[in-house]
Amino acid sequence: MSKEKILTIQDLTKSFGDNLVLDGISFTVEKGEVVVIIGPSGTGKSTLLRCVNQLTPPNSGRVWLGEQEITGSHGNINRLRQDIGFVFQHFALFNHLSALGNVEVGLYKVKKMSREEARRKALEELRRVGLEDHKDKFPAELSGGQQQRVGIARALAMDPKIMLFDEPTSALDPELTGEVLAVMQDLAKAGMTMVVVSHEIGFARTVGNRIIFMEHGHIVEQGSPEDLLFRPQKDRTGEFLKKIGELYGG
Ligand SMILES: Nc1ncnc2c1ncn2[C@@H]1O[C@H](COP(=O)(O)OP(=O)(O)OP(=O)(O)O)[C@@H](O)[C@H]1O
Ligand SMILES: [Mg+2]
């Protein structure tokens, strides 16, 4: 029995001026799969995630969420975006809203829930990331790890079909990275479909189902964590892994 495809990316290209950043990217993500994307800086990883939900419109290629095409969906794009949770490197919280406010605002403004329903749901999501006791604090009163967990709770509250993470821990001190990765690991265990750009190789190995190595807008190689990390087929993959091993001590 073939598994349900949640995300399908077909021959995606994107250039900024004459800088070709995505040069024909294709892959699919099945329900419940955790796909980790690694690759050198400037290789197009963030652009790829942004093209998925059309924050950046691609030049060509197609993207589907389940059976629904996202590319060229015009009026429908705001509806489809609600199904795609996005977690950013720099949290992107509203600084004038409390943790609870950040999580509930999309629920009553975008999802049109009642205030009561939105609050109930937001509290549930804050509990899930271990921050119920911090619900009334503002972003400036929270650690980076806590802010990122609010960012995750905010994305989860929309009940997305897939979660995209763009280097969710790279702005964090090492001791705060673990608490965010633990939340992501719980999410994966709960069956969430996830695409994670991250060089946290320990996480990729234990939580990831597949690792994609990207360079210069191409997928160089992809495979199970064990294969890609320990039996890379391409020299470039091995060289890159050696480099991040030195940088991250992994
Ligand atoms: N809005 C933009 N306008 C012009 N060029 C852009 C824009 N966004 C990205 N680029 C360029 O596209 C290329 C890929 O950038 P991108 O941020 O996707 O790389 P990345 O793999 O995420 O890198 P990093 O690991 O540093 O986050 C870079 O050369 C970058 O300068
Ligand atoms: Mg990036």
Textual characterization of the structure:
The chain has 2 domains: 1-83 and 161-250, Rossmann fold (3-Layer(aba) Sandwich); 90-159, no CATH class. It has helices at residues 45-52, 77-81, 99-109, 115-128, 144-157, 174-189, 201-207, 225-230, 235-248, and strands spanning 5-16, 19-30, 34-38, 60-65, 68-69, 84-87, 162-166, 194-197, 210-215, 218-223. A 6-stranded mixed β-sheet has the order 6-7-8-3-9-10, sandwiched between helices. Strand 9 (210-215) and strand 10 form a beta hairpin. It has 9 helices and 10 strands. The model has no long low-confidence stretch (mean pLDDT 95). It is an alpha/beta fold. Helix 3 (99-109) crosses helix 4 (115-128), helix 4 crosses helix 5 and helix 5 (144-157) packs parallel to helix 6. Bound molecules: adenosine-5'-triphosphate and magnesium ion (MG). Magnesium ion binds next to helix 1.
Order of helices and strands: EEEHEEHEHHHEHEHEEHH
Instruction: Kindly state the percentage of residues in helix.
Output: 25-40%
Tell me what the CATH architecture of the largest domain is.
Answer: 3-Layer(aba) Sandwich
List the uncertain runs. none
What class do helices, strands and sheet pairing give?
alpha/beta
